[in-house]
Each structure stands twice: as C-alpha cells, then as structure tokens.
Write a structure and sequence with these properties.
The protein is of the alpha/beta class. The chain is built from twelve helices and 19 strands. Helix content is 31%, strand content 27%. A hairpin with a 2-residue loop joins strand 14 and strand 15. The two termini are 25 Å apart. The mean pLDDT is 90.
Length: 393
Amino acid sequence: MTTVALIVAAGKGERAGGGVPKQYRDLGGITVLRRAILAFSRHPLIDTVRVMIADEHRALYKAAASGLGLGAPVIGGAERQASVLNGLESLAGDSPARVLIHDAARPLVPASVIERVVGALDTYPASLPVLAVADTLKRSVDGLAGETVSRDGLWRAQTPQGMHFDAILDAHRRAAARGIAATDDAGLMEWAGHPVKLVAGSEDAMKITTAEDFSIAERLIASALETRVGTGFDVHRLGEKTAGGVDGVALGGIVIPHDQALQGHSDADVGLHAITDALLGALGDGDIGAHFPPSEAQWKGAASHMFLADACRRVREAGGVIRHLDLTVICERPKVGPHRDAMRRRIAEICGVPVARVSVKATTTERLGFPGRGEGIAAQAAATIALPAPEQT
C-alpha cells in the first residue's frame, strides 16, 4: 500500500524575515525545507516524498534538496489549496493508496506523529494530528477582554494530515470547481462528508511563522541533539616523486613543497584521511577503506578532498552538524607551521564550516620512530558532531 508525503513549500514566508522565504532559511545548519523532507524520507512508512514549490524558487529548492534523490518538484499555485491540488494531480497517474499533506514550515515533526497519522488511515479515510487547547480563550471587544470561550472540544490542528488519496483528490477537484475554500485539507474532507480521525500531535511539530519561532525551533533542535566524537589515524610513507605526481606533499588539502612525496593509492593526504575517518567514526559509518576501497582502480591517484566531502555529506544527510575538527600532523619534515592557516581554510572550505571550527596542529616524535627518521608522516584527528538523538516517544 503506497503512501506518499506531499510537502507544501510554495509560500513566500516573509513574516519570519531573513531575506529568503522561511522554508529556505537555515535552521540549526540545515534548511527548514530539508529538515521537513528528511522527516518523511527517512520514515519507514513513507514510500515517496514530493514537494510543491514556487516557480521562482527552483534554485533554492535544488540546493535544499541536494543529494536526497527526490524527483522534480511540482510548481504550486497562488494559494495553498491550489498548490496541494497541483501536487495531488501530479500523483493521479500513480494512484497511491494514501497521501500525507504537510507544511514545510513544520520541520520538526516527530516520527511518532507520522506513524499515528498513517496508522489511523487503516480504519478512517482521513486523520488529523491535534493538540488540546490549554490556554484560557477570550473574545476581544474593542481591545478589551470579552467573554471567556469554553475550551471543551477545541483542538489545535497540525500537519501532516493523512487521507485516502482518491477521496482527497476528489474533494479538492470538487472544491476547486465550486470555489470552496478551506484552511486545511482535513477541512475539505469534512466538507466532502468524510470522517476525520483525531490523533495525538506534538508540540515539537510547531509551525514556524515569525522570527521568534525560529528561536524556539533552534532551542528545540539543541535540546534534541546528542554530541558524538570520533577519532581517526592515518600513516603514509614518504618516497620519491613520481613523474606527473604531486609536486610536494599533499597535506591538509594543500600541497606543501618538499623533496619527497607521500606514497599511497590516492594522493595519500594523511591529514584529510584522518579527518574523514574521524567523521565516519562519529557517525558509526565504517571507515574510509570501506567506502573507498584501495583495491578499486577508480580511486588510484584520487584527490582526498573527495573522501572528506563525502563524509561531510553523510553527516548532513543524517541531520547532523559538524561542531569542530581537530587535526594533529606528526612529522619532522616538512614544517607544517607556515602552512597551518592555509590548511585550516582549505579543510573548512571542503567541509562547509567556519574556519574557527577547524584546528590544525603539528608535532614531532623527537626523531624517534619512522616519523623521526623521516620515513613517513602520521596524522590523528578528532571530529565533534551533533546528531539528532533517537526519538524517545
């Protein structure tokens, strides 16, 4: 039984400020829209994710959805209801059994809410996550407090809202033909005569509307992150330069002039290799050799920034953020000090983090062991990342 998540992201989102529509603003190192997409694309009950966007936001969408393997977005309409109808029509040829319709402005929806919404569709044609109204409700009369409104039977509606696909497509088509407007999709299902099952929502599934909402969401993210630390270590021997090879030592993403070169299947950049392994270790995702086996010819002579960039991509796709990278190079020669800042800048560039989050140090072994004899260079690294903590409810 196919279940599709439609994410509505065609709005302008100007009230939140920031210079770009709120769905494309950064939230804890990841755009709001990407967080919303990840919530569904990672969920085992969701088969496909499709996003409705404004036509002028194609470039912003491409950046936000990069690497997630989504199909082409659907261009939305002037209003939310028209955007959802466009999204539903784009699915008509596939006829999925169920569809969840979600606002991109709710990027922190918990997996448990998605599970409850989908589960209710086994029995009902529509489901709606809600929260009880806790505050006292007042009517306003000329700016003064009027009567108190009973909270009995009142709920705050959230998304995703789940529906049987054929029923919601028919409701949207009929509403469009008759000029019927509704504030949400559950409202259209009610109008069309379908019962809507209420399920428990979550305060975490808040809707971001204002600049203050961004601050609240940042705090929610911070409280839901766990800190992980990984370490990496690598060694490569020094040897003669080969014809057409690196004119010096590839180290920390730059080339340091030297009368020898590091030997290895790739460019043998021990610094980037150590950082790559540190990031993979923090993720619990194997090591550099597992992802880029030296037995494969395609990695012969490869630039090591490719390996590090891939590890950073894996962090991002896990919803994580790189907090700090600490590299120590162990060698007698070449001298690292004069090149320290250039290495920091290059590592920061590859990883997409501020230079202040990258540390590069160097030490010797007091002429002991293979580094002390000038036979090779070693590097060790530590990576600190923040990852979403496993959901507890």
